[in-house]
Amino acid sequence: MRPHFDPLGLCLTLALGAAGGLVARALGLPLPLLLGSLCAVGAAAAFRLRPFGRPVEAPQGLRLFLVPVIGLAIGGAFTPDVIAEAPRWWPSLVALCLFLPLAHILGYLIFRRLGGLSRPTAWFGATPGGLIESVALGDEAGADPQILVLLQFLRLILTIALVPAGFTWLTGHAVGSAAGPAGAADPLGVPDMLVLAAAGIAGVWLGRSLRLPGHVMTGPVALSALAHLTGLADGVPPGWLIGITQIGIGSMLGARFAGLPRGALPLAARLSALNMLAALVLAFGFAWPVAELSGQPVAAVFLAFAPGGLAEMSLIALSLHMSVVYVTAHHIARIMLSVTFARLVWRRIG
């Protein structure tokens, strides 16, 4: 029986991703390790290149080893001051409940009017959160599975690419590159390592048992936060480990381009680009008034509303050294609200 993946192919894919990340860092590009690895592996996968005769591949099960690292780092940001500040976030959570339906409907109109997609494909392709759940719901509703997967996948890719580029344009310098990846500067002690490893393993199990959205990350976030708030742990994963995590996640995202139908890709890319530009402009419009009401920086609110992936957007927040707990909390809410809205409205209009 053929193995689920080729170990040598995986090693070569990660090496290609690392090379792309280092080149991007040398060029001073925004969020270089994540975007550089994504571009290098994505280009190789899209053009069906075979480094040393091996296919480009990175099994999605690799997330089980990478994403909890982000959760553990975010948990270290929980402090009594952050907990005390959380009640002030209610205006932005209320605004998120307005933003998500507007972004969803706007995307639906773009896909229907400009792309001529079927109603179920356009509706679930425009869901601004919950890739797996949206694809499953769309499949049940009769959506085109290839186009639907492309639209949802490109939503993640384009948001991850456009958001750091937008910050670079606003600030005038590359973000997430000069300072290197966020993380602990000092080596972790053995007690902290043991506590965080236990929190990561138990957190994944707990998140899956409780069916938390994005359980691979949210479970470790919860237990890491508990460990830090109770004094069981003081440190967070070091910067070099966060850097490896960026390369791994970027390589996994890039490897998803393998096997995608070439004929459908240009149409889906054009529509997704329009959808993402519209959603990010809308998020920027919400960011200014919400920042005044919630006491958060405009950049943090914008990042909290940008419809990327939970792990990826939290990783961007870590790399940009901004309100990572605030951003992560809003993206957890975004996934839950997006899927709920998509399901309930489709029952009425479908």
Description of the structure:
The chain has 15 helices and no strands. By secondary structure, the chain is mainly alpha-helical. It has one domain (63-237, 260-349). Helix 7 (131-141) packs antiparallel against helix 8. It starts with 6 loop residues before the first helix and ends with a helix. One of its GO terms (cellular component) is membrane. One of its GO terms (biological process) is regulation of gene expression. Keywords: Membrane, Transmembrane, Transmembrane helix.
Detail the topology: elements first, then pairings.
Elements: H1 7-26, H2 32-46, H3 63-75, H4 80-85, H5 90-114, H6 119-125, H7 131-141, H8 145-171, H9 190-209, H10 215-229, H11 239-255, H12 265-294, H13 298-305, H14 310-319, H15 324-349
Helix pairs in contact: 1-2, 1-11, 2-11, 3-9, 3-10, 3-11, 3-14, 5-6, 5-12, 5-15, 6-7, 6-8, 7-8, 8-12, 9-10, 12-13, 13-15, 14-15
Output the keywords.
single chain; 350 residues; 71% helix; transmembrane helix; Aminopeptidase
Summarize the structure.
The chain crosses the membrane at residues 31-49, 61-83, 89-111, 156-176, 188-207, 214-233, 239-259, 271-291, 297-318. This protein has 350 residues and is mostly helical.
Q: What is the 3D form?
A: globular
Structurally, the number of domains stands at 1
Backbone structural class? mainly alpha
Give the biggest sheet. Answer: none
Helix-strand topology string: HHHHHHHHHHHHHHH
| Total DSSP helices | 15
Distance between the termini: 42 Å
Task: Give the overall pLDDT as a whole number.
Answer: 87
- What is the alpha-carbon Rg in Å? 20 Å
Strand content: under 5%
Helix-residue proportion = over 70%
The low-pLDDT segments are none
**Total number of beta strands:** 0
